[in-house]
Amino acid sequence: MPFRSPNRFLLRAVAALGAASIVLPCASARQPNILFLLADDMRPDAIHAFGNPRIETPNLDALAARGTRFTRATCSYPICVVSRNEILTGTHGWENGLAGMKVENPRKFLATWPDTLAQAGYQTWHVGKWHLSGRPSARGYTDVAGHFTGGGGAFWKEQRDWKGFPVTGYRGWIFQSEDGKAKYPEMGVGLTPDISSKFADAAISLIERKPGTPWFLQVDFTAAHDPLFMPPGLEGKYTAEDMKLPENFLPEHPFDHGNFAGRDECLLDWPRTEDAVKDLLRVYYSVIDDLDTQIGRVLATLEKTGQRDNTIVIFSSDHGMGIGSHGLRGKQSQYEHTINVPFLFAGPGIAAGATTDAQIYLRELFPTTCDIAGVAVPPSVTAASFASVLRGETTAHHDTIHGYYTDTQRMIRQSDGWKLIRYPRADRWQLFNVKDDPHERDDLSADPAHREKFEELRAKLNAWRREQGDPLMTGDEEIE
Ligand SMILES: [Ca+2]
Predict the structure, then answer these.
(1) Cα 23 to ligand 1 centre (Å)
(2) Burial class (CB in 10 A: 0-12, 13-18, 19+), 310
(3) Is-above-0.70 flag for pTM?
(4) Residue 24 falls within a domain, yes or no?
(5) Residue 210: pLDDT above 70?
(6) What's the domain count of the chain?
(7) Which domain holds residue 364?
(8) Which residues place a Cβ less than 5 A from the ion ligand 1?
(9) Tens-place pLDDT, residues 121-145
């Protein structure tokens, strides 16, 4: 039985062993359940209700209608592992040691989001893509279903994507038991066209438990990460002819932004052609359309089981994606389409149909949900709760927000729209005002008329880098 769960009481005991010594209040029935739905590699503009007529996402549209949309939610480090560890620990990559993709994953002294809620009496469940080290039980999840991670190499057979190209991502990933001892190759090895439905099945099996205590469920989907496969039933729904190129489509990025040789960028031939990008968009949107359908099934289960009114629902992605914007196919950039994420927050007490441009980070979900649930935030968490924005007490959160990637990209964006990107290795700058130029087509960094703004942001960015211990700023040699 693929979704057979490990003994939850044993896992609770394991989680308790890793507990911090702070005393937290017991959860009560009045505390909301928390359902966190996380897409993978999904651009923030790939939702119909966000003004994209070329994709159908009725369930996310409905969630937007009963919740609050954040237009400037930021992942800060646009790759899977680092972003997900930021979410898990409420710290940024330089603090948790993951920004360099180090083995220690994350540093063990950091409190985790699920463990903190588990100590407060929540049942904490995980479904889907596990892209962190160790096992969910060691990170504070009390139970799992639909556990999907590496370790199925023995079952791997060569696989080709929707276009017939050899698959390079998720090779050997497999559904398995939480301890990895039981593998389920019959459910597919690597990504499969219907994989989102399997994660939804697992999530539904947990929600249907109605345990009588508050629960936290994180569902990590793999959509719309590559390799892309046409989901069953969607063949022909989206055509390349109906697709619209991104406003900032370019055949090539004007310089090496730090990842030209990366796997993501090699998924599309250089230079990018309009036809190739439209064909890619067709399949990318199909995968997201299917994700939306599966999310609809999960949300319907909340209704059917009478838990909708006491459940916070959060939808986001670990980061965005290029898909032809600025000549990029992959993630690993500081542009808005990638550093920003789709972000919806709905549930009891949350404004319906609202939109905010308050600047927030994904990693702030940890303290924010603690805030809402009345759970003390552990001292290792450096991220700040944005619950005051959700409560309508303020419209702003961070005046400046930052992004970074390896030693090749640094970014600062102000709430007034001014944004500076630094490429230390390429020795390049880009200055945009994303309020006037949301697609970042007009680089003003060399414009004398904006010299003062450039210098202002440059000084702020460098001050932040020093303060945060940017390895490029704190080593023997300072590399701006
Ligand atoms: Ca990802």
Answers:
(1) 35
(2) middle
(3) yes
(4) no
(5) yes
(6) 2
(7) 29-398
(8) 40-41, 80, 318
(9) 999 999 999 998 889 999 999 999 9
